[in-house]
Amino acid sequence: MDVKELSMALDSLWVIMAAVLVIGMQAGFALLEAGSTRMKNSGHVAGKQILSFAIASLAFWAVGFAITFGKGNSFIGTEGWFLKEGKDTFASLDWANVPLSLKFLFQLAFVGVSLAIAWGGFAERAKLPVYFIFGTIFTVAIYPVIGHWVWGGGWLGSMGMQDFAGSTVVHLQGAIAALVATILLGPRIGKFNKDKTPNTLPGHNQVYTVIGGLILWLGWFGFNAGSTMGTADGFFGYVALTTNLAAAAGAIAAILTAKILVGKADIPAMVNGVLAALVAITAACAFVEPWAAVVIGAVSGSFTFWTSVYFEKKGIDDPVCAFSVHGIAGIIGTISTGFFASPRLVEITGIGKAGLFYGGGFEQLIVQTVGVLGAAVYVAVVSFVVLFALKKTIGLRVTAEQEISGLDISEHGSYGYSEQLDPAYANVANFKMTNASSH
Description:
Layout: H1 3-23, H2 25-36, H3 42-69, H4 100-119, H5 128-151, H6 155-159, H7 167-185, H8 206-224, H9 235-262, H10 267-284, H11 290-313, H12 322-340, H13 343-349, H14 363-392, H15 400-405, H16 407-412, H17 418-421, H18 423-438
Helix pairs in contact: 1-4, 1-8, 2-3, 2-8, 3-4, 3-5, 4-5, 4-7, 5-7, 5-14, 7-12, 7-14, 8-9, 8-10, 9-10, 9-11, 10-11, 10-12, 11-12, 12-14
């Protein structure tokens, strides 16, 4: 085996490992969101992760990957349907020294994460058919367009936008879709009183929430470090370092902020602080020094908690704080490189220019801001049109009776916790336990 073949073998092994880590984040989302919502919806919330990834896999293979990375124009790719490869069809990915199948699998994992984020705004009240329809449209007409703009040879990439692993491409897109859904669906029954003051609808299992957060933290090493898609120069190790430092700072900043603002060291807030920091560093991980990663993580973790409280007071019922964690932090992270991008790291990556704090002026900051605004407007408009059309036709929301009963039973026919929520099951179980104890 010559050097070139060995290099491809090592890079391919690294990319498949990274892809598996990112796909494994679906388990993290399942536990995080199920734990953060009520018991009567736990099976539904967890199960939709499998449904979501299945929809994304087929739709991205057929259409989405071609629009994202296929040869085309500055706005969309127009070649490469069903992964059909021709001359220069996927030239935007030629820099990665791995087979096309692995390029697809790794990028598919990102789409799955973005769609999982979007579902946070639908939680506990959306109809099951909506997941099929919106999930397909998101995968073929929303996510790929922004992906092409930034990573597929589009106009934002040509401007030098710095979004290494997707604070905007992955996280902000999912968060904007979640926010639009949250607004169109309206708050869950019982969330707000007549005077508009919010009630707490606590998640049923904080241990699930914490474990889910830890799985996501682990998966993020595949997310960010895996985006190097290579091993030769060892740069993936540096990306992993900045990623971890940011996450640690986000955890501490969030729990301290919660203590200051509400008087309690809130555990879900700490988990969201980790995730917000990871979201923010996703754009910046390859462009900033370690000290800047700590600053970005701390600011994101702290600000995310404050905004989650603020949005709730404004009547927005975001069950898992999807917009605060992935939207606000995505904006912070993307814009942060306009301030913190280091000249030496910009030279290594070859993307964009140094940030304002390194004498680079406002140019990169303007590019980052334009990227955020352009992506947010496109995703918001298309998501609104699609979801509004669904609302007026098949409807977005289950009936009040179904919502009160829980989506586990109304949409799937059985509870995730049958022995605790199903009276018939509980009666049988109690009879058996009583019978056994009498003997």
